[in-house]
Amino acid sequence: MYYNFLIIATLFSLPGLIIWLCRKDLRPVITRMVPLALPFTFTEFLFFPDYWEPRFLFDLGERVGFGIEDFIFVAGLAAFTTTAYAVFNRKRYLPLEIINNAVIMKRCSSLFGLTVFLVATTVLLDIPIIYGSCATMMLVAAAIIAVRRDLLAPACLGALYSIATYYVVCVLCLIMIPDLFQTVWHSERFSKITVGGVPLEELCYGGAAGFCATVVYPYLFRMAFAPLTGEGRHL
């Protein structure tokens, strides 16, 4: 249990892995979204050590501000938060129109620029990063929903499914490392509210990630959700 972050990251990769194995039609979604999410691995230095202090392989957290575990965690989180709504509501993605790579890149750049601006604002205003990151994801999603109002309901349900999944994984982490949130997290600096031993901030983070991730893919690639039928299980 010495390398607790490796255990946490591995457990958080399981829901996305299960989705990958069970829903072949969602594999292209995961394949596209995980690389887009990986750059946020480098924001770990904003969380460590003020928000939490896990053990990193090769002490990379102390040396460079992030570790190998961050890549595993971010990839796993992106995989299941992006697809949670489609899985639980038995939906598939239906192209609304064919768009070229230039349009996709322009949209990616706009969302990335907005995210950087919001994170920088969080840092400049000295807002705790756990709250700032949740607000950033919610505001990015709100910007998308402003132009794609059909994605509001999926975003809300995606947030609920992600919170539930996030909570289950946190409980599994507690089973393996009973004192995890007392020894790794600095919960005493924040709300001090827990749900079954899980800090409220962690559940807010999971919910915000689900709210945002649910809408990013259909926005970038001009997709809509449609019922999952026997005839339409692939993109």
Describe, in plain words, how this protein is organized in 3D.
This protein is mainly alpha-helical and 235 residues long. It has one domain (4-226). Helix content is 65%, strand content 6%. The strands form two sheets. A two-stranded antiparallel sheet has the order 1-4. It has a two-stranded antiparallel ribbon with strand order 2-3.
Oligomer: single chain
Strands, count: 4
Helix-and-strand structural type:
mainly alpha
Q: In the residues, how many domains can be counted? A: 1
Binned strand content: 5-15%
Rg over CA atoms:
18 Å
Strand arrangement, major sheet: 1-4
Main sheet specs: 2 strands, antiparallel
- The gross shape turns out to be globular
Mean pLDDT: 94
H-E string: HHHHHEHHHHEEHE
Helical percentage: 55-70%
In DSSP terms (H or I, runs of 4 or more residues), the helix count works out at: 10
Distance between the terminal alpha carbons, to the nearest Å?
Answer: 41 Å
Low-confidence stretches: 231-235
